[in-house]
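Weekly modeling sync, notes
Attendees: S.R. (lead), two postdocs, one rotation student

Agenda item 3: backlog of single-chain predictions. S.R. asked that every request posted to the team notebook include the full sequence so nobody has to chase files. The rotation student volunteered to paste the first one in as an example of the format we agreed on. Action items at the bottom.

Example entry:
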Amino acid sequence: MPNLTSKELTAIEDQLGIEQNLIKKYTMYAQATQDSQLKTKCDEIAAKHQCHYNTLLSHLN
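Predicted structure, as returned to the notebook:
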């Protein structure tokens, strides 16, 4: 992997924070709802953002 500039590292760190917030929100929404379809959709969205988080994190390792 090529070396990242400080600007690129900052952008990845910022996006990691955004992804973490989205994971927390959709996990919370899934836990709060009584609607099974909505719960499933929120869980899927949280999983998608977890995948994004893991991908971004891999760029830092």
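Discussion: group reviewed the output briefly. Residues 6-32 form the longest helix (27 residues).
Action items: rotation student to repeat for the remaining queue; S.R. to check formatting next week.
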